[in-house]
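Hey,
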Amino acid sequence: MPSTRVVPWDGRTTGPWLSELDGAAAVVNLTGRSVDCRYTSANRHAILASRLDSVRVLGQAIRACRTPPPAWVQAGSLALYGDAGDRLCDESAPVGTGFGAEVCVAWEAAFRAELTPGTRKALLRIGFALGPQGGALTPLARLARWGLGGTVGPGTQYISWLHIADLNAMWRWAIERPEIEGTYNGTGPSPCTNREFMRTLRRVLHRPWAPPTPTFAVRIGAFFMRTEASLALTGRRCLPTRFADQGFKFQYHDLRATLTAILSPENA
């Protein structure tokens, strides 16, 4: 196994870390302040600035390389599509509304604006990644085990999910395959509603029916948890059309089988 070296950076300015990019196989940028917070003025600024600044400084760093990396793979978000209801969203779907969509528009525009002639660029609009090591699934599973795993809000909002193993395979494809360029939906092929997701989660954990959490209660709970209710109450039904068209094969298609694999005792 190759050794791992950690070099700090601030996500805003160039520094000694720049030399790590010279001759590198690829750059993968996952930088961005978490959106799991209250959307105060300060937090909105931090969410947007952390994304735009990191893209800008990486563009500068790549252009300064004597041997620039052949690929730059950038994280994005399906939040670009806003609260899309039951409309299917592939990569050509229209942009939605709201703060999340506005951030994504500016984020993607900043990425496109960075000219890196010797470096291929690809952007993955990432969905709801499921894995055994933390992430959004952990608190949902905890609530279900406590008997609180009911439908959230209306339950009709879609969750575009994928297993972390498939997401990691997408990153690898984008790094290694020269035909992967432009914008891709980094999600799985089987989006489902919140109602279906929570019902399946309860079944996998062998928990009985649980009462739904009405929208007003979600909003109150989000306030006390210092987060935004919209993160749970909005959704989008997205498909990985470009990955599928280019031959990507998903390891995980079925939600119940996926949750069973992740939440098995050895991964608990």
